[in-house]
Amino acid sequence: MGTSDATSKLSRRAWPVRDARSLGRALRDYRVAAGLTQAQLSSIIGVDRSYLSELEGGKETEQLRRLFAAFKALELKLYLQKESGEPD
Questions:
Q1: Alpha carbon of 85 to those of 4, 11, 38: distances in Å?
Q2: How many domains does the chain have?
Q3: Reported pTM
Q4: Which range among 3-7, 72-76, 83-87 shows the weakest confidence by mean pLDDT?
Q5: Residue 63 maps to a domain
Q6: Residue 86 belongs to some domain of the structure
Q7: Average pLDDT in the 14-28 region?
């Protein structure tokens, strides 16, 4: 599947995010579909490439742990979807 195929597929789906690991997978897939390297995206958003790598790798920070705990306590589900995508 080429980058444009991957981008098209990702723009049509809502990605469930349940924890730091699934957030990292989503970030990586959307970054790759956008044709960006970690270095390029980290430069765009103003963070070190190593930080982006840790996020994509699913490293759980205290802030993320608390955020996902709040979602769970409130029985919320989080989904990521490209702004241009249509809901499933």
A1: 14, 5, 23
A2: 1
A3: 0.76
A4: 3-7
A5: yes
A6: no
A7: 93
